[in-house]
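re: ur question from earlier - yeah i can do the single chain one, its not a big deal. heres the input i used so u can compare w yours
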Amino acid sequence: MADMRLLVLGGTHHVGRAFVEEALARGDAVTTLTSGRSGPPADGAEARYADRHDPAAVASALGDDTWDAVVDTWSHAPVAVRTTAELLRGRVGHLTYISTVSVYTWPFGPGVIESAPVVAGDPDSTESSDYAAAKRGGELAIPDDVPALVARAGLILGPYENVGRLPFWLTRISEGGRVPCPGPQDRPLQYVDARDIARWVLGAAERGVTGVLNTVSEPGHTTIGALLEECHRVTGSNAELVWVTPEQVEAAGVEPWTELPIWVPPTGDLADLHAIDSSAARAAGLTCRPMEETVADTWAWLRREGVPERATDRGGAVLGPAAEARLLGEPSPG
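and the output i got, formated as tokens:
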């Protein structure tokens, strides 16, 4: 079934944009509510504008309309989630809040499930500096009487990604030269393409799926070696991929996950970021497209639209020339 009336709170980049495009392709009637700073949504969506921090502006933009489903991608002050959800009470059939596995108490260990301990969150908070606490507050901001799905996403990749993870590797490898790549090459990876989140959530909304679900691929969906080799292949680059060990990364003082996006070492606190239990979501219909499709489509988008400005600093500082030189055992650039 399609032809839902869908409200996307957001909708101009990454996950929100994926939702808009997937819903339009299905034949849904899509309304977006954004601040307007990122430009208009895709053609075919009805664009409305309001500052989520301004309840009166949000109420005016929403009017008296009703929707079959609502998707909220908000990552800032939780009170905005509460305000909007309260305004929509009784006017929506289903609400999905895109949360994150970052809400689990750190470090969360291998195979973390939805009932694991989480960080504290305040649904009335006006603060957003602590990403995990803000997302947990957003979860708590949804009224109990609103049918809701909380999708705790893992690492999100795919076209429109503006954190700079897969775009970093595609861009750096396309530039050529010697590229330090963190191993071992068979290190398993786990992530979800934003378009797969969108496809699954829209179907889940139709079926009335509620509750909290870890929304990410099965562990070992691909490996770091396969991913970076595919980046090399699709870019047609003459770069030399130089594989370095976790011990070399540590000795060079290079940070996993941030300076080396996507990758985490096989031991230590970060190791289990690619070992999340997503069996419940997969049992509820979540499927993840092949890694090769995500890489190819992300590269095609980058070539078409260019590397986007990073929307946040959550990704941290990516690998620079000095850090590359340390990993490669080369003299530091002038």
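The chain has a mean pLDDT of 94. not sure if urs matches, ping me
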